[in-house]
Each structure stands twice: as structure tokens, then as C-alpha cells.
Amino acid sequence: MRRPDYSDWLDRLPYSMDLAAKSYHLGVLLADLTRWHTTQCAHYERILKLTGHSERKINKVEDVPFIPVRLFKEMELMSVDRDEIFKTMTSSGTSGQQVSRIFLDRETAAFQGKVLTRLMSDVLGKRRLPMLIIDSPAVLRDRHSFSARGAGILGFSLFGQDVTYALDEEMKINMPNIEAFIERHTGQDIFVFGFTFMIWLHFCNALQTQNIQLPLLNGILLHGGGWKKLHDNSVTDGQFRKVLAERTGIQRVINYYGMVEQTGSIYLQCEHGRLHASIFSDIVIRDPNDFHSMEIGETGIIETLSMIPVSYPGHALLTEDLGRIEGVDDCPCGRLGKYFSIAGRLPKAEVRGCSDTYEKHS
Predict the structure, then answer these.
(1) 7-80+275-345 has which CATH code?
(2) pLDDT at residue 277, rounded to an integer
(3) Beta bridge partners of 21
(4) Is domain 112-257 classified as CATH 3.40.50?
């Protein structure tokens, strides 16, 4: 079977399809991708047969057979020859937990980058801004096997220039680095990136403890992952934004939802605080009891769908997150498609997030 090629979708605006058009066109594409993985990945083919999905017809995105995201912790799933794999990404996890292993060939990795570029241009435009990363350069030790944090940093750093790390190798705030960076870019827009819990733990806390004020009024902060750990520490989204504004002046804060198992398919928060599905991906909410697709406003398990995964069968994944679709095609921001919110984690689900689990050793 010929390898799927969806590069023509890159010519379309990321939020330009209404529900009817997207459900049909993306459904056709994902059906094609399902056939590809069925013929190329023996484990995936057996899974579909065992679950009774192998003969079902796919007419829309809700019909695409899904697999639990946890399966990537248990099995090595790939749809290309092993000698074509040039990068392996791992999910985050606490010490002793199994991690997901995601196998990328060059074409899949390249398409990830192109899709991410289209999505980020909706936030930053086509310019590359001076970039301050709220993390340590130590995360990028191994360029061939990335953690979720490392993959995120490497991917988003493509949209910055003069990339500077705000933390040192001991995860302490690096004021000389930050002050020199701010001096070089006084008056310019600045792209600030980090993982939510890491920003709070190592950046916000340090600024408060040391009574530091940073002139980052022109900063655009993109952050994601780690909300479970913040909520466990009784930190709300409002408090997170408030402390950032007080200590840095940053007013434009954009959260995103995503996972290493579908790198590139991120769901960005609009100016009205809603997470949006682009034309490259979609969201289905499943009932926890029988997995039927749920209606707008109903809370259930989040399933994420993406056209990106070709080297591994990760195009339809049942996550361990709870959420609900808040609306379709009618967000005041003007973006078409579904918009949704996260309601938390499934009970008894493993605690993990895109920011990795960070354990402080004394």
C-alpha cells in the first residue's frame, strides 16, 4: 500500500473548516490512515480484529477505531521498518513508571514540524521572535531519544531566535542570562515558552521568593502540561496568570493541550480561553461506560485524532483525560471547528503530563 501523503492540507488555514466539511474530509483521510496502519503494523491489525473494528465502515471521525494511549507503554507499535526509525520520543512518567515510546521516521517528523508551524503562525505570525525558555538546557542531552519536555522545547524553539534558557542546570533561575536577554531585546515582542508546572515551581516561585520584577510586558507566553500538579497544590489558572502579570508584566498567556503520542497536533487556547481543534486534528468525547460519542456539553473521556502519525498507529487515541466539547463553529474568536475544555484526569489514571514529573532530590 502506498504511504499516505497529506501535505496538500498545509495549504489550508488551520481553522477554516466547519463541522460538516471537516467531519467528512478528515473522516476520509483517517479511514485511509487506518487502512495503512492495518497493513503495515501487525500488532495494530490484531488489536482491531480483537475489538471487532476490522470490518466496520468509517463514515466520519467518530467511526475511526481508537486505541488507548496507555498501549504505547505496553507495546512497540510502528508502521515502518525499524531501520527507518531515526528518532524515538518518550512520554513523561514518575520514577518506576513505564513510559510511552513513539517511533518517528523522517517523513513523519518533518510533517509534525510543518503542521506545528502552521498552528504557531496563528499565534506568532510568520516572524521568529526572541525566545526565552523557562527550563534548563540540560533537558536536551540526547538528540535521538527525547522526553516529552525535550521534544516540546526542541519543537517550539524552531519559532524563536536568540533562544535563551531562564533556568540553569540545577533548575534555579539564571538572572544573568535573563537580564542579558532582556537588554538585547528591549521594546521587542518576546516569545516565552515553558511547561506549566515547571514555570510555576522554578520561575514564579523564585520571582516571588526573591522579590524580582522582570520587564516582559511584550511577552507572549505559551505553556502546557502539568495542570494536575498545580491543582494538587491549589494553584488555579487565575492565580497562575496573576502572579505572572505581577512579576513579569506578561498579559498574553496561551495554554495548549497536547501529548507526545501525537506530537505536532496541539490544541491552542484562543483569546476567549477556549481550546480549539484545527483542521489537522479533532476531538471526540467518549462515554466512560460504553465509549459512545457524547454530545456538546457532556463530560467524558477525551479521544484525540490526528492526521500526523504515519510511522506509528497513533492517529486515534483514547486519552486518560476528561473533558467536554463546549461548542462548534461559533466561538467569538472566529475560528471554525470544535472548541473544548479539560475537566481533569480519569480516576485512578496514572499521574503524568507533558511537563514530565519532576522530583526534587535533596
Answers:
(1) 2.30.38.10
(2) 98
(3) none
(4) yes
